[in-house]
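Q: Given only this backbone (133 positions), what sequence would you predict?
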């Protein structure tokens, strides 16, 4: 069975992958925390700038959820600016917090284990595969 939070995260991924920055911002709180290996920052403008320059596509895989916190395992692919040419790929995982129908935090981790640990989730929190993104 899916969840409202998973539906928001599904829409967030779709907007990011389509390059629809305005939709991505609408799905996110004004004070969203965006982060990754280089640290984190807050705000819709930070999200806009990141989405515009990152050249990243995130294909969701396994999902783990407890309450408002989700960990999504992802195939991350970076593309050269202005092209569809992939410049790198890796498996990663992002910890999302969804509150009030909006993503309030999206912090990317190098791997699923570190994301689960950071979120305080375990393998027991895996959503039914039929309900995944």
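A: Predicted residues:
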């Amino acid at each position: 069975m899916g969840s409202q939070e998973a539906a928001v995260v599904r829409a967030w991924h779709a907007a990011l992958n389509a390059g629809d920055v305005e939709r991505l911002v609408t799905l996110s709180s004004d004070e969203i925390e965006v982060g990754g290996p280089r640290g984190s920052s807050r705000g819709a403008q930070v999200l806009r700038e990141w989405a515009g320059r990152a050249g990243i596509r995130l294909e969701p895989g396994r999902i783990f959820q407890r309450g408002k916190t989700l960990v999504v395992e992802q195939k991350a692919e970076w593309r050269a600016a202005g092209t569809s040419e992939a410049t790198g790929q890796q498996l990663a995982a992002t910890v999302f917090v969804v509150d009030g129908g909006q993503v309030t935090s999206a912090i990317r981790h190098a791997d699923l284990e570190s994301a689960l640990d950071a979120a305080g989730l375990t393998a027991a929190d895996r959503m039914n595969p039929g309900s995944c993104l």
